[in-house]
Structure formats: C-alpha cells, structure tokens
C-alpha cells in the first residue's frame, strides 16, 4: 500500500507551519494597516511565533525519527537540534529588532519582520530535509530573503552596496551548488540523499570517480560561500558592515548554523563512503583543512587592522567558520557534538556582541571602534558584558568559546592533525590582540562624553541572556555536553525506509 | 554510450515522476567522450558565422553608395534610435504575469487529473490546491495594495 498525503502525520511540521502562517499573516496585516501605524509590534508577534515553534520543536526530542514524502521533510535528532539552535537565534534577532529597527529609519518596517520569518523558514527547511531539491529551496528562501534584508535600509548607501554585493556573489555561489547537485543527480538519478548514498558508491566504483569528486568540490565551493569561509569570504565584511545590525547578527548566527546543518547532512550522508574507502583522507580532507586554515589565518589577521566594529566581527566570523570546518574535515568521533556545541556557543556570544554593537551604534551614530572608548565609565554593566563576550570569542577559559574551541581542538588532536591544531592555537593567540583592543578602548581610553549611557530594557535582557549563555556554557559545559551527547546524531545518516526505491 | 533501460518506479509516483536512466558498461572515459560532441558543436558555432562572413566578403562586389549603407530594416527607411527603452512598469507586469502563468500551468494538469486524484486521495487534493492558490492570492493582494496594477 502506498502512502498518500493524508497518511502522514503532518503535525511534525508544526514549527514550519507556525512560522509560515505568521509570515503570511504579517504580510497581510502590513498591507491593510495604515502607513503611519507603528509596526514594532510585528517583531513581538514574530517572537511569539518563534517561541511557539521552539516549543513544538523541543517537544519532539526523544521521539522516533519521522519522514514525509520520501525524506523531503525529515525530523530526526539532528534536525531538531539544529532547528532549535536556528529558532533560538531568530528569536534573539527579533528581540534585538523589536528595539533596534525603527520605523523612522526603515520605511518598510513590516516587510522587515516577515522577510526575517521567511528567512527563518528557509533555515528550518535546510536543517530538516534529506532531499536535494527541498534543501536547495530552503537555502534559496534563506538567501533571497537575506539579500533583501541586507538592503532594507534603502536610504543608506552602505546598505544598498551590501545587498548588491551579496546578491551577485550569493547568486554565483548558488549556481555552483546547483551545478554540483546536477552532477549528483546525473550520477545517481535521484535527489533523495539516502538513495544517493547507495548509488554514488556504485558510480564511484564503476569509473565515475572524477565526477563524484567534482560534484563534491563544486558544492563545497558554494557552501564555503554560505558559511563565510576563506577564500570565499570577500562579501562578508562589506555585507556585515552595510546591513542593519540585527540583520548582520542574523547572517552571522542563523545563516551560519543553517548552512552548517546543510553541509553536514549532504556531505556526510552522500559522501561518507569516501571515508570508508580512504579517499576522503587523501583528497577531501587536505582541501577542507586548507580552507579551514586559510579562514583562520585570513580572518584573524585581517581583523587586526579593522576600525569598524561590525567589520571586525565579520572577519572574526570568517575565523570562526575556519574553526568550525575542522571537525568536518577530520571526521573525528565527536564531529556532530563539537560542531553543534561550538555553534551554540557562537550564537550566544555573537548575539551579545552584536547587541552591544547596536547599542553603541545608536548612541554614537557611527560603528567605529572608538565608540567603545571609556564605556566602562559610561555604562559599567555594558562594558562588563562586552568583556565577557569578547573573552569568549577569543577563547579564554571559563567561557563558552573556550570550551567550544577545546572540543574542536580535541577533535583535531585525536585524529592526529597536529598542524591544523597548531594553526588554530596560533591564530587564536593573534585574535587576542584585536579582541583585547576593544577591551582596552572600554577601560583605558577616555570617553567622548561624560553622560551615562542608558541601556533600555530589551537590549539589557539580550545582554543578560548572552552572559548567562556564555558563562553558563563555559562554567558547566557538562550539562550541554551531556544533552548534546545523548542525542541520536547518527539517525541523520541512516534511511528510515528499508531499502532504496527501485531495483 | 547506450541507454539500456528507462524505468519509472511506481512507489515514486507520489513525489513526482522519477526516471532513472542506467547505462551498461560505460566507463568514466566514455562519459567524458560524450562532451566531445558538445565541444565540436561549440567550435562549429564559432566557425560558421566567421566563415560565412569571410567567404561573403570574397565573393560579393563592393560598390557602396549612400542608399546602400543604410541599416537594413526590411526595406523601410530606419527611424528612431537603435537603443529602445521600455517603461519599468512593463517589468512589474511581466513579474505579475509569471505568477499567473505558473498558476495556470500548475492548475491545468491538476484539473485534468482531478477525478482520478479525487478517487485516490480524496478531498485533500482540493484542499492542497486551495493552499497553493491562497498563497498566490496573497501575492496578488500584495501587488494590488502596492499599486502594481495601476499604470502611472
């Protein structure tokens, strides 16, 4: 008996349905509301939708994996974990937007919120599908919404420039991914990742080895762009600097997490046989490690002479993409756990850092690092919070960032990759210079004005969440590690239906 | 290269037709060899106009006059600038047209197969299409309220 649409349990899609419905509702509300109505409540409404979606996602943990329509939609622990991370990031971005995105600055304030919801929906699809077409649709939904969001500040030149650069380079990257996918389809005749998993081996062994590797490298080229790793990072500084700060934090946190979910799923399900055949170690791993090393070196050294906060954080984001690539390249035993831990750590500390950046940008009217001067005297709390985030980004012990890096370093060392571990430690030391540069500004430079800086409720709440996350994950990492370790990560790699379709 | 069998597996019909073409005894080298055809056509495409113009230059007499060197426009005297500008509004209409075009393309086979689908799937097949149309309808309302339909 074939399964028809109504045989599926569609309630597993509740998070996606909630987000899609909220986006549709807001787009209609935006059209029928009067033009001068304050649309800031849109962000609160979206936040409520995101929280509901998180609730439905989290409540599915521990249940059996489930798929809809031949793995085009799939819930397993891998999907749920990444979706929770993505949604938490989106929730924090909405919190930041509720305060930081003003209607008097951005004329289409309503569009901002439902585009962000659409982008979140794309990111969610990227985490929980095992079909190339659906994954690509998710990726494009995220990307296209992000292009518009980067340029939503229409009156600002930098925002326009960011959107333009992003759309051109992003389009090229998508083309590469699609080209790689077309080779996969040509070799296997399927878009289902688990069918691909089986047929790609056959293809490899029957003389198509060059095409299998070509497809992988074409896709990795595009993915490298999406996760902002060097040498595909040229868009990062301009887009991060030009986009409105909440959008930048979205790009840094949510896009990166979703892109990593996509990369892990496609590469590990489709190409894991290369590892078993020792080809991965000879061909793919060196390439990925070189990308990782380049990202660390370029990201950290280019950040040294940045004077703009968002630009500095952009290069730091490139460096972090490098660290995150290490577990994927070496395929160590705790690959999923260390990547996911690092992504959550990155989420809390980066959101915190961007909140402070947004606060100072509003206060000073510019994004220059000199805005940090004397912050410890003008607002000791904000300065202390920023110090915590920076220490975590730099990877100083008792913070989330330290344990995340340690986890990844263990991954590299346990698989005998000492040179990449060396680069990682070396570039981390270099990064101290520019992270501590900001701390020096805050504590040892005289402030531009003596007035105390007011920190409104919403950003203050974000800072508290950021500190709790950063310090909590750093002081008692066992909690998170146990929780992450108990998840059935391997369920992402195994098909639910016995046997491939077709003879 | 020989294509030996094309089959459609019934279990895949629900998620769209999936056709797998399997090749027998084709090695990687032969697969590359397929691209030689593309390369030949590419080179032919480059060579043909170049050759035609060159040979034409050798064969034709060359006696230009003022009337002869006018741009050829099907026998009519050319007028206006060669650079023609279209109003940006056409672009919006084109986008809007694509929405409804896709909708028609999607609705038509659905309508033809409706009775069969109805027996197999039930009323859900109608609900499914309504969801699709609803989302396109939101798009139309958006275009309407953003005054895309007005020609100003």
TrEMBL record, chain A:
<feature type="transmembrane region" description="Helical">
    <location>
        <begin position="207"/>
        <end position="228"/>
    </location>
</feature>
<dbReference type="InterPro" id="IPR010096">
    <property type="entry name" value="NADH-Q_OxRdtase_suN/2"/>
</dbReference>
<feature type="transmembrane region" description="Helical">
    <location>
        <begin position="111"/>
        <end position="127"/>
    </location>
</feature>
<dbReference type="GO" id="GO:0048038">
    <property type="term" value="F:quinone binding"/>
</dbReference>
<dbReference type="GO" id="GO:0050136">
    <property type="term" value="F:NADH dehydrogenase (quinone) (non-electrogenic) activity"/>
</dbReference>
<feature type="transmembrane region" description="Helical">
    <location>
        <begin position="78"/>
        <end position="99"/>
    </location>
</feature>
<dbReference type="Pfam" id="PF00361">
    <property type="entry name" value="Proton_antipo_M"/>
</dbReference>
<feature type="transmembrane region" description="Helical">
    <location>
        <begin position="249"/>
        <end position="274"/>
    </location>
</feature>
<feature type="domain" description="NADH:quinone oxidoreductase/Mrp antiporter transmembrane">
    <location>
        <begin position="129"/>
        <end position="431"/>
    </location>
</feature>
<comment type="subunit">
    <text>NDH-1 is composed of 14 different subunits. Subunits NuoA, H, J, K, L, M, N constitute the membrane sector of the complex.</text>
</comment>
<feature type="transmembrane region" description="Helical">
    <location>
        <begin position="457"/>
        <end position="476"/>
    </location>
</feature>
<keyword id="KW-1278">Translocase</keyword>
<dbReference type="InterPro" id="IPR001750">
    <property type="entry name" value="ND/Mrp_TM"/>
</dbReference>
<keyword id="KW-1003">Cell membrane</keyword>
<dbReference type="GO" id="GO:0005886">
    <property type="term" value="C:plasma membrane"/>
</dbReference>
<feature type="transmembrane region" description="Helical">
    <location>
        <begin position="312"/>
        <end position="334"/>
    </location>
</feature>
<keyword id="KW-1133">Transmembrane helix</keyword>
<feature type="transmembrane region" description="Helical">
    <location>
        <begin position="12"/>
        <end position="29"/>
    </location>
</feature>
<dbReference type="GO" id="GO:0008137">
    <property type="term" value="F:NADH dehydrogenase (ubiquinone) activity"/>
</dbReference>
<keyword id="KW-0520">NAD</keyword>
<feature type="transmembrane region" description="Helical">
    <location>
        <begin position="164"/>
        <end position="187"/>
    </location>
</feature>
<feature type="transmembrane region" description="Helical">
    <location>
        <begin position="41"/>
        <end position="58"/>
    </location>
</feature>
<comment type="function">
    <text>NDH-1 shuttles electrons from NADH, via FMN and iron-sulfur (Fe-S) centers, to quinones in the respiratory chain. The immediate electron acceptor for the enzyme in this species is believed to be a menaquinone. Couples the redox reaction to proton translocation (for every two electrons transferred, four hydrogen ions are translocated across the cytoplasmic membrane), and thus conserves the redox energy in a proton gradient.</text>
</comment>
<feature type="transmembrane region" description="Helical">
    <location>
        <begin position="416"/>
        <end position="436"/>
    </location>
</feature>
<keyword id="KW-0472">Membrane</keyword>
<protein>
    <recommendedName>
        <fullName>NADH-quinone oxidoreductase subunit N</fullName>
        <ecNumber>7.1.1.-</ecNumber>
    </recommendedName>
</protein>
<keyword id="KW-0813">Transport</keyword>
<keyword id="KW-0812">Transmembrane</keyword>
<feature type="transmembrane region" description="Helical">
    <location>
        <begin position="381"/>
        <end position="404"/>
    </location>
</feature>
<comment type="similarity">
    <text>Belongs to the complex I subunit 2 family.</text>
</comment>
<dbReference type="GO" id="GO:0042773">
    <property type="term" value="P:ATP synthesis coupled electron transport"/>
</dbReference>
<feature type="transmembrane region" description="Helical">
    <location>
        <begin position="340"/>
        <end position="360"/>
    </location>
</feature>
<keyword id="KW-0874">Quinone</keyword>
